[in-house]
């Protein structure tokens, strides 16, 4: 059964969304706190997509839009937090999510989409049309 | 003369801000269009910092905040569009801008700051406490 990809809604929080994200990193939020995060993200214009099988969420990806001054005030899409429930990896859920987020970025007028990933995932993203561009740097704040 | 780093305001658009960004990529916006971009970025919560010598802008860096579900709903800062006017590279404007944006991210509650850069700039960012973490991928949309 192929997953359906759509924008996340509040009820998804209790229907597998947080468990899917746990595949990526610890979440450790009550449903109430997660609902507050969801509202803050909506206010900031972050798009959160979910992959559903029936009414259960089996994966997610997010799209953060950033309007630049450069490139004639163009918009860049940042794909973040692509996560798939370990039981559902065979359904190509991750690629469906990234393709959907990329298509949405195009519809929303982005001139490019960028993302950061570990070396082992480069072939996955190359298969979806992405190419190596630069390096991701980070600093942890105390 | 050391530059002063502060949040950008509207008048900076005509005081060297757009010229500084041109060091990074073409801008090609009228002042009116740039002012509209600036307002849209403020609405989205993007912080734009400028480095000033006297009342002239000689560099800029931006900070995009993203609230996550993972890491207990923590916030990530994305540093974007660090640009310094070619005449001012000797003033260490770039490092002052990145340090300021990083400190602001800390004050705003971010648990990490990330950015993408080309290989040649890795030593610059390492000198500011950043470390290599992953790879930056991109796709260009038509």
Give a short synopsis of this structure.
With 142 residues, chain A is an alpha+beta fold. Chain A has one domain (4-126): Gcn5-related N-acetyltransferase (GNAT) (Aminopeptidase). Chain A contains five helices and six strands, in the order E-H-H-E-E-H-E-H-E-H-E.
Properties at a glance:
homodimer; about 140 residues; alpha+beta; Aminopeptidase; about 30% helix
Q: What does it look like?
A:
Two copies of one chain form a homodimer. By secondary structure, the first copy, chain A, is of the alpha+beta class. Chain A has one domain (4-126): Aminopeptidase (3-Layer(aba) Sandwich), CATH 3.40.630.30. Chain A is 30% helix and 36% strand. Chain A contains five helices and six strands, in the order βααββαβαβαβ. Chain A has helices at residues 17-22, 31-43, 70-73, 93-107, 122-126; strands at residues 4-7, 47-53, 56-67, 75-84, 110-117, 131-140. The first copy, chain A, has a five-stranded mixed beta sheet. The longest helix of chain A is centred in the last third of the chain and has 15 residues, at 93-107. The model of chain A has no long low-confidence stretch (mean pLDDT 95). Chains A and B meet through helix 1, helix 2, strand 3, helix 3 and strand 4 of A and helix 1, helix 2, strand 3, helix 3 and strand 4 of B.
């Amino acid at each position: 059964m192929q997953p359906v990809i759509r924008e996340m809604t509040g009820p998804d929080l209790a229907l597998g969304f947080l468990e899917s994200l746990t595949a990526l990193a610890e979440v450790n939020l009550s449903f109430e706190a997660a609902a507050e995060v969801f509202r803050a993200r909506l206010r900031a214009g972050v798009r959160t997509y979910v992959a559903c099988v029936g009414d259960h969420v089996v994966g997610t990806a997010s799209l953060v839009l950033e309007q630049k001054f450069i490139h004639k005030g163009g918009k860049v899409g940042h794909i973040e937090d692509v996560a798939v429930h370990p039981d559902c990896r065979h359904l190509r859920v991750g690629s469906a999510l990234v393709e959907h987020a990329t298509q949405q970025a195009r519809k929303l007028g982005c001139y490019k989409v960028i993302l950061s990933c570990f070396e082992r995932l480069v072939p996955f993203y190359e298969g979806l049309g992405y190419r190596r561009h630069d390096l991701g740097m980070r600093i942890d704040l105390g």
